[in-house]
Design brief:
Elements: H1 8-12, H2 22-27, H3 34-46, H4 53-72, H5 74-78, H6 98-109, H7 113-126, H8 130-141, E1 167-168, E2 171-172, H9 173-176, H10 191-209, H11 211-216, H12 218-230, H13 236-248, H14 260-263, H15 268-280, E3 346-351, H16 363-368, E4 371-376, H17 380-389, E5 394-397, E6 400-401, E7 406-412, H18 425-428, H19 434-437, E8 440-449, E9 462-465, H20 471-476, H21 479-482, E10 487-493, H22 504-513, E11 516-526, E12 545-554, H23 556-559, H24 564-576, H25 581-593, H26 602-609, H27 630-639, H28 644-647, H29 650-656, E13 660-661, E14 664-665, H30 671-680, E15 686-690, H31 694-700, E16 705-710, H32 713-720, E17 727-731, H33 739-742, E18 753-758, H34 763-769, E19 774-783, H35 791-799, E20 803-809, E21 818-824
Parallel strand pairs: 3-4, 3-9, 4-5, 6-8, 9-10, 15-16, 15-18, 16-17, 18-19
Antiparallel strand pairs: 1-2, 7-8, 10-12, 11-12, 13-14, 19-21, 20-21
Helix pairs in contact: 3-4, 4-6, 6-7, 7-10, 8-10, 10-12, 12-13, 24-25, 25-26, 34-35
Length: about 850
């Protein structure tokens, strides 16, 4: 909340575009959300060029945070504020577009053009049609102050023609750029001029951000460029792009002497000559059909667009900002897109691909589509999860990799301790935690396969292996497949946690004998000697190193024998996954200097781009386990490969406003409850659900049948065609205490459902009515259970013999924690 008077009324007075509406905006200031006013204040301060650069950057981040709170607050996100507008419903309130304009400008200022472009596309889609555009503009005229998405329009007032100098109360903008306007009557407000001003800046900025696409699809681009050129405020750039696109299509182009390309642009004679030549030549046949050619592996690919949601509901109109790399440095440390392309994919093998181990080092490259992955996971439950989540470039095999014979699997209390080696209690007893985690629950006999015998693998560029002590056995029986590997990341132990376990020294000796050398030790784990505790805890060790992930690369002798293709693969891995910028630079220099190798000057251009990374000799590398500031700690929490939030892709859900985990829809509940539900839900369950969306889609792939009740007519129509066959989708108008909440009391539902999920409207009555439909071991789930307005409904269940357990924590999208509560009886279907 604002502690003082907002700054924006005074700050916007310096902007010529705002002169006409500022008085009206001031009158409506009391009705504006505090977070939006704070976001606008911070943005205007950030765009004040007289402020220190550091302060301006912090203000940009603060403004973005206020906008996130505005759109992701629990109450707003679960109720009307997140509801997509139904364009066919003319009586529905139109969401103000001012926050979206500000969001786009912030993305541009923070160097996030892909996110800005997607929001622009979304807004243009929303403004498709005169009625929609008028309604959106009305939100500006009715009292939502705004900033243009581009600074070029700060001094371009609505209604102003190209080339005019903006006037503020009779004074040229150039003379008032730093002076507030305090007198004079505002000009007549022209809604059509504001509409044109809005569309012009969207189209003009969109063209600048999608230059490659515009040139790749000239026929598609031409009508848009013509439309943008005809709007006021369109700059000379729009005229230049229109001329170039028309020339490429072989169209006749007239470059008049009074054209801005001649009077104001660079190389006026060239433009005149281009126009004359185009008019003298016959139209080219097929000029818009470039020759087809094979597409190489992309240097980077944006994350696929995902639908938006209201109460975790997907909607085609919502853009999905591209996900940041899970292993990338902070924005200031992030290098731009790679300077090279790969002619073939990187072949990755993951032995021990259990998703419990967190985000693998190859995750960002897998998203970009530049790797092909084969994973091994013998545990049935873990394999099922991998198969469910896998993408088009992933293959998972149910084999245990070893020496090709039988092995005993020791299944331990902590699944992370399960191994084909027996836990070494004589060593484990010295430490806190290990005696419990390493306790053997059961054993099983496994057939193993030799890595060299796996026919699905023909070549390995990058091996990641973590099988609790069995790594050296895999290496010894995979020498043929590993002889050309570029990177091997293996867990290595420094003490004998298992009986007969090879240690780091044994693995290092094998590696050096086979042409590898140690590059770095990641994820160094330390344990606490018993009986000491630190602040009552046992998990934080002091100095005793137990395990680490060792990363091996080709020895210097092998390096000189690698092909250019292999060197580029290795450079890609080291740059993207391990941020070894110095080693990447040397690899690129080797390519540049190689005799018959293509002279691309990779090293020089890469070194220029390294200027974006601010590292010193004594500064910690990205994601150091010892952060030196709160900002470093925050980035560790968001993007470290083993971070809890990174593993759930929380940052992406926050930025996009979508209830997803790793790009897949999930119920909008807290993460603690989602973990429980994922493990204990059964395929024969029947579920009744109030409130439809991503939860419906997720549940439909996990249970036998769902009955889902929706109160929003527009949303019901949009979702109806997307529902799988095992979903019975029902619409009821919202009448508190009426048919919506009583749907579950119908006779055919008596004793049918294993789970009743209450996450819609009229929740108190839904809770009071639902017991009738539950099986004897059925449960009730209430989201946002911390809200006091639901207490009477919760109390009714407790009075009927139910117990309650709250799963409190963070979840998708939201910054704040909340509660998802489960009401259950002594005998219940999820084993509480």
């Amino acid at each position: 909340m604002h502690a003082e008077e907002p700054l924006w009324p005074q700050a916007l007075a310096r902007y010529p575009f705002a002169a006409r509406l500022l008085p009206g905006w001031r009158e409506q200031a009391a009705d504006l959300p505090a977070d939006y006013q704070a976001a606008l204040d911070d943005a205007l301060t950030a765009f004040d060029l007289e402020r220190p650069l550091g302060e301006r950057y912090q203000r940009l981040l603060a403004s973005q945070a206020h906008l996130l709170r505005l759109t992701a607050a629990p109450d707003a996100a679960h109720d009307e504020a997140s509801k997509p507008e139904d364009a066919s419903n003319t009586s529905a309130p139109v969401a103000p577009i001012a926050p979206t304009l500000l969001r786009i400008r912030l993305h541009l200022a923070l160097g996030e053009p892909a996110l800005a472009r997607q929001w622009i596309d979304r807004l243009l889609h929303q403004l498709d049609g005169d009625a929609a555009t008028k309604a959106a503009v009305d939100t500006l005229l009715r009292g939502w102050p705004c900033l243009p998405i581009s600074a070029a329009f700060d001094t371009c007032a609505p209604g102003q023609t190209e080339g005019d100098v903006a006037m503020v109360n009779g004074t040229k903008a150039s003379e008032t750029s730093t002076k507030a306007v305090t007198s004079g009557e505002p000009s007549r407000i022209d809604a059509d001029a504001w509409r044109d001003w809005l569309l012009a800046q969207l189209l003009d900025t969109q063209a600048q951000l999608t230059r490659a696409q515009r040139h790749a699809e000239p026929e598609t681009a031409l009508p848009l460029l013509v439309k943008r050129r005809r709007l006021p405020c369109a700059g000379i750039e729009s005229e230049r792009r229109l001329a170039l696109t028309a020339l490429r299509l072989g169209k006749k182009v007239t470059i008049k002497p009074e054209s801005r390309l001649v009077t104001k642009g660079q190389n006026p004679q060239l433009w005149i000559q281009l126009g004359e030549r185009a008019n003298s030549e016959p139209p080219r046949s097929g000029a818009n059909q470039p020759a087809a050619k094979a597409e190489p592996i992309p240097a980077r690919q944006p994350a696929p667009a995902k639908p938006n949601q209201r109460n975790a509901k997907p909607a085609a109109a919502q853009p999905t900002p591209a996900a940041a790399s899970k292993h990338s440095p902070t924005r200031k440390q992030r290098t731009p897109a790679r300077l090279w392309q790969l002619k073939e994919p990187i072949r990755v093998v993951d032995i021990g691909a259990n998703p419990i181990d967190g985000t693998p080092p190859y995750a960002s490259l897998l998203k970009q589509g530049v790797i092909r992955l084969v994973g091994f996971e013998p545990q049935a439950d873990a394999l099922a999860k991998l198969q469910q989540m896998k993408g088009p470039h992933e293959t998972y095999l149910p084999h245990a990799v070893g020496d090709g014979g039988q092995a005993t699997l020791y299944i331990c209390q902590a699944s992370g301790m399960t191994s084909t080696l027996k836990p070494n209690n004589a060593v484990l007893d010295h430490f806190q935690g290990y005696p419990i985690w390493g306790k053997i629950k059961s054993t099983a006999v496994l057939d193993t396969v030799r890595l060299d015998d796996v026919t699905e693998i023909t070549h390995i560029d990058w091996l990641k292996i973590d099988i609790q002590g069995g790594e050296l056995t895999v290496f010894k029986h995979g020498e043929r497949k590993l002889k050309d590997a570029l990177v091997i990341q293996t867990e290595a132990n420094f003490i004998h946690l298992y009986e007969g376990q090879p240690l780091f020294a044994d693995i290092d000796q094998w590696m050096r004998a086979h042409g590898f050398m140690l590059h770095t030790l990641l994820e160094q784990r330390r344990r606490l000697y018993a009986p000491m505790t630190i602040n009552g805890g046992i998990h934080q060790g002091l100095n005793q190193l137990t395990t680490a992930d060792a990363v091996y690369i080709p020895s210097f002798d092998r390096l000189n024998q690698l092909t250019t293709s292999d060197l580029l693969k290795l450079a890609t891995i080291m740059d993207e996954a391990y941020h070894s910028y110095d080693y990447t630079l040397q690899l690129l220099g080797l390519i540049d200097s190689g005799g018959s190798r293509s002279q691309k000057a990779y090293a020089q251009r890469y070194q220029e781009r390294l200027k974006h990374i601010k590292l010193t000799a004594d500064s910690p590398p990205p994601f150091s386990p010892a952060p030196t500031s709160s900002a470093d700690a925050g980035m560790l929490l968001l993007r470290h490969p083993r971070s809890y939030l990174n593993g759930l892709d929380w940052e992406q859900s926050l930025r996009s406003g979508e209830s997803t985990v790793k790009g897949k829809p999930v119920p909008w509940v807290t993460y603690p409850f989602l973990h429980l539900l994922d493990k204990r839900i059964r395929s024969n369950f029947k579920v009744f659900e109030y409130g439809s969306g991503n939860s419906t889609l997720w549940l439909s792939s996990h249970v036998e049948k769902i009955v889902s009740v929706e109160h929003d007519a527009g949303w019901y129509q949009k979702m109806k065609g997307k529902m799988p066959g095992n979903v019975e989708y029902i619409y009821h108008t919202l009448d508190y205490g009426g048919a919506y909440g009583k749907e579950i009391t119908k006779p055919q539902y008596k004793g049918v459902f294993d789970i009743v999920f209450v996450d819609g409207r009229d929740r108190v009555n839904c809770l009071r009515n639902c017991v009738h439909a539950l099986k004897q071991d059925g449960i009730v789930i209430l989201d946002n259970a911390e809200r006091p307005q639901y207490n009477s409904g919760s109390e009714s269940l407790l009075q009927q013999g139910f117990k309650r357990i709250d799963f409190i924590g963070m979840g998708p999208v939201n910054l704040a924690a909340w509660s998802t509560a489960v009401f259950y009886r002594a005998r219940n279907c999820i084993g509480l």
